[in-house]
Amino acid sequence: MAMTGELTIHGEVYPVGAIDEKVTAAYENGIKLIVVSERNKKDVEALSEEIKEKMQFVFAKGIDDVFQVAFI
Fold this sequence. Notes:
It is a single chain. The protein is α/β, with parallel strands linked by helices and 72 residues long. The protein contains 4 helices and 5 strands; from the N terminus they run E-E-E-H-E-H-H-E-H. It is globular and about 35 Å long.
């Protein structure tokens, strides 16, 4: 599991740039699940079909969304 995004002190998950490079690096290193800011959804939709089919994406608005995935 990996996460990319900016986490504020108020628990919000903000978007970041270079999603394609970050997700591609995660994919190449065997990561199967990645948590991404909900505001980066369009960036994820633009990724290659191969990556989208082989990885699971969780779109997070806040820290609670991250905790639900990270601490099952």
